[in-house]
Amino acid sequence: MARNIAQFINDLPKAELHLHIEGTLEPEMVFKLAERNRIHLPYPSVEAMRRGYNFENLQDFLKLYYQTTRVLRTERDFFDLTNAYLARARRENIRHCEIFFDPQAHTKRNVPFGAVVEGIAAALREAAKGDGPTSRLIMCFLRDLPESDAMKTLEEAFPWRSLITGVGLDSAEVDNPPSKHASVFARARALGFQTVAHAGEEGPPAYIWEALDMLKVQRIDHGVRAIEDSSLIARLVRQKIPLTVCPLSNVRLRVYKDMAHHPLRRLAEAGVLVTINSDDPAYFGGYVNANYYAVQKAFELREPDLATFARNSFAASWLSDDDKQARMNEVDSYLIARADD
Ligand code: HPA
Ligand code: ZN
Question: Which listed residue (75, 201, 210, 303) is catalytic?
Fold first, then answer.
């Protein structure tokens, strides 16, 4: 156990299920794309930009996130962005990822839907054919826009539906309950899309109930505020509904004042299927392994505890049952091999 825990985390095979591809846009790439697309940036340097990454709450972050996203204009930009994440994922031993994208953030700037999805999907396809990771793509609706806008986006996506596995719901949560998007989710389900939704990040546990009952989602993104409602916890456990938790994000957006106050350990000990993810790693101080490391330190987790989170990440994924089992066996073999070292 004296072995380096950071190395253990790095080599642990894992899946990432809560990752906004636009949230992987590092300041270096912002500058590169701004130059390529001749877009003026309100920052003198990469360093100055990074220094501004100090957020009061979700809304405060989203303002910057949408502003920065403007440098993404062409299919090639989306391809390069996704490729950079996938290279990082390989270094972190992410074997499978389920990636969000926010089409409305781009189509409202007159970037064609096809440029966004084809750029992302081409990079995902190359990775799956090569050294991995495997992937699924999830189209998120921006919950602060009217539902009619989401409905239009769903129709717009139709020619590319074979590239998109599921739909999700993100952006400013408070005052935008899941019920607002019940019709578009019903339509998406009828078209055969899988479903997830951000709920219980800043919003109350009632939003998690709504996401389950009205949107009929299969996973809850974040969902950390479920800890405030014991009957909700009982339901998540009984129905094996996974939470895609993003610890560094929650601390950076001040949902919790520090990692010691984060409910991850309490949720896991209550029997909830908890996974660890990075959300918007370019903004929140780390990719998935940094998130594992931060919770390991805060809660003094041991190697078998960390392996459980990795196993959960495959169990909660949309891989086939056979692929899930194969990936979970890989986690078990890794743990045993390490114990024998
Ligand atoms: N929460 C909600 N919406 C988002 C986030 C997030 O952390 N990141 C990008 N869109
Ligand atoms: Zn998110």
Answer: 201
Say yes or no: CB of residue 249 within 6 Å of ligand 1: yes
Residue 172's pLDDT is 98
- The protein residue with its alpha carbon nearest to ligand 1, atom 5, reads 171
The pTM score is: 0.98
Per the listing, tokens 């919770």 go with 295
Atom of ligand 1 nearest to the CA of 246: 7
Hey, where are the domains in the chain? 2-340
Angstrom distance (rounded) from CA 143 to CA 176: 6
State the Cα–Cα distance between residues 293 and 272, nearest whole angstrom: 20
Residue 2 has pLDDT above 90, yes or no: no
Ligand nearest to the CA of 23: 1
**In which order are the strands placed within the sheet that holds 94-101?**
14-20, 94-101, 134-142, 166-170, 194-199, 219-222, 243-245, 274-276
Tell whether ligand 1 has an atom less than 6 A from the beta carbon of residue 18.
no
Residues 6 or more apart whose Cβ sits within 8 Å of residue 3: 338, 341
Verify whether ligand 1 is closer than 6 Å to residue 201 (CB atom).
yes
Q: Is the pLDDT of residue 3 over 80?
A: no
Q: Name the CATH superfamily housing domain 2-340.
A: Metal-dependent hydrolases (3.20.20.140)
